[in-house]
Amino acid sequence: MKAAGDWIDYSSLKPLVIGYVDGDGIGPYITGEAIRVLQSLLRDELERGDVEFRKIEGLSIEERARAMKALPDDALDALKKCHVILKGPLTTPKKGDPWPNLESANVAMRRELDLFANVRPVSIPSEGIDWVFFRENTEGEYVLGSKGFNVTDDLAVDFKVITTQGSERIIRLAFDYARRNNINRVSVVTKANVVKTTDGKFLEIARAISKEYPEITFDDWFVDIMAAKLVDTKRRRDFRVIVLPNLYGDILTDEAAEFQGGVGTAGSANIGKRYAMFEAIHGSAPRMVQEGRAQYADPSSIMRASTMLLRHVGMIDKARKLEMALDICGQFEKKLVMTGRPGGATGREFADYVIETMNSDDLESRWLSYTGKGI
Ligand code: IPM
Ligand code: MG
């Protein structure tokens, strides 16, 4: 971590290799639709050979169970040969499931590819909410999450790990993001009043780093009251950039996404200096598959993740187009409504609606008529 190199420059890569993982459960349905949207958006780049889509095999829960590995070696090698990755949700086995109790593939991938920053935006323009969560992505309760043990029949122990380097890099990224985007507030969330050593370190480092950004207001919150404040309609729009350790970030971002229209609408970027992976914030929803409803799963989440991927590699105009189309289709015009059930639109129908909107000549003027904003 101390010797980490510089950030990768995507503009010099030809072709830019976009790997994609279908995922488990509803994964293949929603990922397939996101890839279809991206293929339409990047048609010229694909034809010119500037961009290549590459399917990554070997990561389904069946294949991981067969290999008895959270991240089978061949799949990890294939992931490392891509520049950026779009990943459908992968089933995480838990105690009592029919699968071996393997570590989460997500967690393993974040660690193996050193994707230390989990960036999760939540925006509700009509309420003035524009939050960006910077969740630390490789430490906390997660790093040794499969290494806990039962000391006796009655005593179970897990671990929480926080390092100076791990905290510094996520906190700095959050402040740099705020500075670059003229955002005047960064809030750090911990439970440093109780979890004194690890959360105490995170808070202390945040406080020290905040001094280097005098133009940005810095405040700190405990995770319990922050969970409450996110519901407080009088206060919540004041929050802008929120930086927090891994598990608190996991929990609060699901809560935040719910206000935006559900976890099915939220994307998530997992960013490191060398690799980056983009995904929906939700899981594989096996219940939807069991009940025969997978085709009704909302692909907006992974399409939002796709906009983050495009921004990350510098294709800002393409990202804007898809963002505007998703705003129009999902938040404003809503000609089709996803309910997750028969009666609502299917993911395929929604993707067709997004593609048609995205490619329409009046995309921008339509978007502006709804938001009344400049770009
Ligand atoms: C997420 C998920 C994962 C996490 C699970 C699947 C391990 O909830 O990406 O938020 O806890 O990080
Ligand atoms: Mg989560």
TrEMBL record:
- What's the top EC group for this one? oxidoreductase
Q: What is its EC number?
A: 1.1.1.41
Please, which domain of life does this record's source organism belong to?
Archaea
Q: Which InterPro entries match?
A: IsoPropMal-DH-like_dom (IPR024084)
Q: Which GO terms describe its biological process?
A: isocitrate metabolic process; tricarboxylic acid cycle
Molecular function terms in GO for this entry?
isocitrate dehydrogenase (NAD+) activity
Return the similarity comment: Belongs to the isocitrate and isopropylmalate dehydrogenases family.
Q: What is this protein called?
A: Isocitrate dehydrogenase (NAD(+))
